[in-house]
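User: Reviewer 2 asked us to show a designed sequence for the structure in our supplementary figure. I'm pasting the structure tokens here. Could you produce the per-position amino acids so we can include them in the response letter?
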């Protein structure tokens, strides 16, 4: 197995690291990039599904492991929300070190995340994104054939969590308030996040008169409001409640049922 040859750039890289620019110049023409590929499908995997960076920490770290029987080259970077970001265009107050490295078969790698000290809100979380690009090895037979090399890009949320946020993250769902709002003949669910934490919702159901009506939801920013259409709900009947799922710090899913919902 071999990789495209990479030579160090003018600055002295860490031992065992690669020049990112040289790496991109050396990649084969027949290359496909799969953006935001699910991390579980990649052979280089992270031990997190999300990253929480404590605001008081000077640095944090994450662990990667190569499940392949062959080596991989990995490139990592962080951005502020641009799904099409590249290491050159990305802007985030964090540095990942090393940024480019080779992983041997069945080996692990620690990546350090360092905050640059930028002024961020201290009463709420800020969200950024950690990108990991996996570049597989190339066999001699492959390199002499007109075939395609597939790179996988995984993307995880990074939550910068200051110590000044009121309340614990486990209590954040208690600060979520729901109401129903009429939209023509239909209804929509309005959610108010009164906490300083991001809440990643995975949808749920509005219970009206004992009947369930589904809704699709997404991430709700701190101190923000969002609304989502409710499937099939044209008339509200007591009792009213909301059942929903949200993702916790460990990537697990918690189910919550709220108190009665006020119809507006």
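Assistant: Here is a per-position design you can include in the supplement:
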């Amino acid at each position: 197995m071999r990789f495209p040859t990479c030579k160090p750039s003018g600055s002295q890289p860490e031992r065992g690291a690669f020049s990112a620019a040289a790496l991109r110049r050396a990649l084969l023409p027949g290359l496909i990039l799969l953006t935001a590929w699910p991390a579980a499908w990649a052979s280089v995997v992270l031990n997190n599904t999300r990253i929480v960076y404590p605001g008081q920490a000077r640095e944090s770290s994450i662990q990667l492991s190569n499940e392949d029987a062959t080596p991989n080259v990995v490139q990592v970077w962080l951005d502020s929300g641009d799904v099409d970001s590249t290491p050159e265009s990305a802007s985030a107050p964090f540095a990942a070190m090393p940024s480019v490295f080779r992983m041997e078969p069945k080996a692990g790698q620690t990546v350090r995340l360092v905050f640059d000290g930028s002024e961020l809100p201290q009463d709420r979380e800020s969200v950024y994104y950690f990108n990991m690009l996996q570049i597989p090895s190339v066999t001699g037979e492959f390199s002499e054939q007109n075939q395609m090399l597939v790179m996988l890009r995984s993307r995880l949320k990074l939550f910068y969590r200051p110590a000044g946020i009121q309340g614990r993250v486990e209590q954040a769902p208690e600060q979520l308030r729901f109401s129903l709002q009429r939209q023509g003949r239909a209804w929509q669910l309005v959610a108010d996040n009164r906490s300083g934490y991001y809440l990643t919702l995975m949808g749920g159901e509005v219970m009206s008169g004992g009947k369930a009506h589904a809704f699709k939801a997404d991430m709700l920013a701190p101190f923000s409001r969002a609304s989502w259409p409710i499937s099939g709900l044209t008339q509200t009947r007591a009792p009213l409640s909301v059942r929903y799922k949200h993702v916790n710090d460990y990537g697990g899913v918690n189910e919550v049922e709220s108190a009665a919902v006020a119809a507006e």
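For the response letter, you might also mention the following. The radius of gyration is 23 Å. The helical segments are 20-26, 140-143.
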